[in-house]
């Protein structure tokens, strides 16, 4: 379950840092998979910044309603139960 500070951070910043959710090795594997997918789908190659042609997001507006309690959203409930001991 997210703390009130984490919920506030999510509402203000649009993301929450969750420490200890997965290992460094799992993070590295996810990063590698992301780069592979970007290359296959969009031609974006990690080692070639010239392929990073999508402009960064700008002009975003703040949330107008409080952020949902992610623990009550079914797709996030699954993620919260995954720990470092569970590997896929």
Mean pLDDT: 78
Q: List the total number of helices.
A: 3
Overall 3D form: flat
State the helical fraction.
40-55%
Question: What structural category characterises the helix and strand content?
Answer: mainly alpha
Largest sheet: none
Low-pLDDT ranges: 77-88
Which sequence of SSEs, written as H and E, runs from N to C? HHH
Task: Describe this entry's structure for a reader.
With 88 residues, the protein is mainly α. It has a domain at 23-50. The protein is 42% helix and 0% strand. It contains three helices and no strands. The protein has helices spanning 4-13, 24-42, 74-81. The two termini are 23 Å apart. Mean pLDDT is 78; it is low at 77-88.
Question: Which properties best describe this structure?
Answer:
88 residues; 42% helix; disordered C terminus; mainly alpha; flat
Concise account of the structure shown:
The protein contains three helices and no strands. By secondary structure, the protein is an all-alpha fold. It is flat and about 40 Å long.
């Amino acid at each position: 379950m997210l703390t009130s500070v984490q919920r506030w951070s999510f509402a203000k910043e649009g993301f929450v840092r969750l420490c200890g959710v997965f290992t460094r090795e799992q993070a590295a594997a996810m990063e590698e998979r992301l780069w592979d997918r970007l290359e296959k789908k969009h031609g974006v190659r990690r080692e070639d910044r010239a392929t990073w042609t999508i402009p960064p997001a700008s002009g975003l507006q703040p949330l107008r309603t409080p952020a949902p309690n992610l623990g009550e959203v079914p797709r996030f409930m699954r993620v919260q139960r995954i720990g470092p001991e569970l590997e896929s």
